[in-house]
Amino acid sequence: TPHARRSYGLEDYEWGDLIDKNDKVRMLIDPTSSYAQAAAFAMGRAMDDVIIDAALGTANTGVSGGTPVTFPSSQTILKDAIDNASDANHGLSPQKLRSAMTLFLENSVPEDEEKFLVVSPKAVQSLLTHKEVVSSDFNTVRALVNGEVDTYMGFRFIISNRLAIDSSSIRDCFAYTRSGLELGVGQDVMARIEERPDKSFSTYVYYCMTIGATRLEEEKVVKIEVDESAIAAGAAATV
């Protein structure tokens, strides 16, 4: 059986904040406090960015893991790939979701493997302009109609504001399977709380982690371009 490595580097991510008053230090043990939440959100955003960059970026492969592999155009659904009346604004549409699922099936991705779709809020809004999605005649998943994130057409939706967008308002959304991406954790999130003599003995809250990620198989990631320039906030289909 031929084997090829995928290599990726681990990078350090840090977050820190000074707290002046002693009574605020007591809040640090409360996981719902603003300090704990700010630190957790910062680490989460950094982790999201690493995964997104790995999904659509260049992966290193080969026997020694030193051969760069760019994201293939064959795994990309262009913004105007399906140009008809129901997708006139080049947004996210049921047709594009079917095309993404077809790519997975043609690449022999197991049908029972969980599939995720990372999209922007405007992409979801554009999807909800299609009668096929919001009408109960076609769709029994009411969560999307109610503005919630759920599963539709075999994809588990994940809404993110971290997806790349170019100067022409083309957003790079993507679908993937669990075995298509890998997140490596060199050091899990670590927290330190100490006084700083150089800062008038204020308490310093410090969080850090060391992580990296890579795309394992090109066939298990599909990029979907969404043109957000024509997506009007609040638009909805007529049911």
Write up this protein.
There is one protein chain. β6 and β7 form a beta hairpin. Residues 233-239 have low confidence and may be disordered. By secondary structure, the chain is of the alpha+beta class. A 6-stranded mixed sheet has the order 4-11-8-5-7-6. The chain has helices at 22-25, 34-56, 94-106, 121-127, 131-134, 142-145, and strands at residues 11-19, 59-61, 67-69, 76-77, 115-119, 151-152, 155-159, 170-177, 181-196, 202-215, 221-227. Helices cover 23% and strands 31% of the residues.
How many helices? The count is: 6
Beta-strand percentage range: 25-35%
Poorly predicted segments: 233-239
> What is the H/E string?
EHHEEEHEHHHEEEEEE
Q: Whole-number radius of gyration?
A: 21 Å
Main-sheet strand order equals: 4-11-8-5-7-6
Structural class: alpha+beta
* Share of helix, binned: 10-25%
Task: Give a quick account of the main beta sheet: strands, pairing sense, barrel closure.
Answer: 6 strands, mixed
Number of separate strands:
11
- What would you call the shape? globular
Rounded to the nearest angstrom, the distance between the terminal CA atoms is 53 Å
Which whole number gives the mean pLDDT? 84
Outline of this structure?
The protein has 239 residues and is of the alpha+beta class. Helices cover 23% and strands 31% of the residues.
Topology of this protein?
Layout: E1 11-19, H1 22-25, H2 34-56, E2 59-61, E3 67-69, E4 76-77, H3 94-106, E5 115-119, H4 121-127, H5 131-134, H6 142-145, E6 151-152, E7 155-159, E8 170-177, E9 181-196, E10 202-215, E11 221-227
Parallel strand pairs: 4-11, 5-7
Antiparallel strand pairs: 1-10, 2-3, 5-8, 6-7, 8-11, 9-10
